[in-house]
Structure to design on (67 residues):
């Protein structure tokens, strides 16, 4: 199971800032897992798992960074 990130929104913003993309790949209970994708969306470079409540305001209902 992926490690839970202390500040997931900051981690995702840093990932996007360096050109990466993301998408929600799992929803289990109160947890979401995002795949951190390369800039061309060709590969998964890692994952990020966090409580849904930590990510909801950032996601705004999106399931992918290009939504």
């Amino acid at each position: 199971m992926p490690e839970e990130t202390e500040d997931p929104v900051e981690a995702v913003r840093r990932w996007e800032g360096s050109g990466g993309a993301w998408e929600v790949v799992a929803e289990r209970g109160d947890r979401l897992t995002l795949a951190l994708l390369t800039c061309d969306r060709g590969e998964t470079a890692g994952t990020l798992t966090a409580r849904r409540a930590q990510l909801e305001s950032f996601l705004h209902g999106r399931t992918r960074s290009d939504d």
